[in-house]
């Protein structure tokens, strides 16, 4: 146990670099996927319901009647299930600005990931990347407050839905919650980069 403890302690800087590489992989992969329609459409509920981001879309405040005659947010009527394309939904998303925004967001995410990776060699860039990762994670975690889709809905069935709403996370909610790890990782790499910078200043 003692030798394991000494080994782990001696590898701290290596493990922090592993965090950098891990964040880079996540950022570049997810950022790159933003160039594809299914991923761009998948983030619509988050962006539409966010007071920080909804202005990027043209239809965020629009409502429409669903099949039951209920007034609902218009975006809910234009969801393409992953792996399926419906032309009228694609047309709506093009008019909404869904794809254009996603291309821009994906580019920003990839740049943040690159900054994080470059922190292995350039502490100042790494500190910026870490802080941007922290900030982006804060925005993502805010979706737990603003986006209805992050919680299991009450869709009924053969008997009343036993678990729905807060704190029962849907698939989207579980994905968002994981960003709390990215938030902590961003601060760790930012502080590690700042430590290296302060050594250079002294």
The fraction of residues assigned to DSSP E strands is under 5%
Residue share in helix:
55-70%
User: How would a crystallographer describe the biggest sheet?
Assistant: 2 strands, antiparallel
Uncertain ranges: none
Number of helices: 10
Beta strand count: 2
Q: Give the helix/strand class.
A: mainly alpha
Q: Strands of the largest sheet, in order across it? A: 1-2
Topology as H/E string?
A: HHHHEEHHHHHH
Q: Separation of termini? A: 37 Å
Q: Regarding quaternary structure, how should these chains be classified?
A: single chain
Mean pLDDT: 93
The coarse overall form would be elongated
The radius of gyration computed from the alpha-carbon positions, rounded to a whole number of angstroms, is 21 Å
How would you describe this protein?
This protein is 63% helix and 3% strand. The chain is an all-alpha fold and 202 residues long. A two-stranded antiparallel ribbon has the order 1-2. Helix 6 crosses helix 7. The longest helix is centred in the C-terminal third of the chain and has 23 residues, at 179-201. The chain is elongated.
């Amino acid at each position: 146990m003692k030798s394991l403890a000494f080994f782990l302690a001696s590898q701290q800087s290596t493990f922090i670099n592993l965090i950098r590489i891990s964040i880079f992989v996540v950022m570049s992969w997810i950022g790159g996927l933003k160039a594809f329609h299914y991923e761009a459409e998948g983030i619509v509920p988050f962006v539409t319901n966010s007071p920080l981001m909804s202005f990027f879309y043209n239809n965020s405040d629009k409502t429409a009647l669903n099949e039951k005659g209920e007034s609902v947010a218009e975006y809910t009527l234009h969801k393409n299930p992953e792996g399926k394309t419906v032309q009228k939904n694609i047309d709506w998303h093009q008019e909404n600005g869904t794809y254009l925004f996603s291309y821009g967001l994906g580019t920003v995410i990839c740049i943040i990931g690159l900054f994080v990776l470059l922190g292995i060699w350039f502490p100042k860039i790494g500190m910026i990347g870490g802080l941007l990762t922290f900030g982006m994670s804060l925005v993502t975690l805010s979706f737990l407050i603003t986006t209805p889709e992050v919680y299991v809905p009450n869709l009924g069935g053969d008997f009343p839905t036993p678990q729905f709403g807060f704190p029962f996370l849907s698939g989207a909610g579980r994905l968002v919650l994981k960003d709390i790890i990215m938030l902590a990782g961003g601060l760790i790499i930012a502080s590690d980069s700042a430590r290296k910078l302060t050594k250079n200043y002294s």
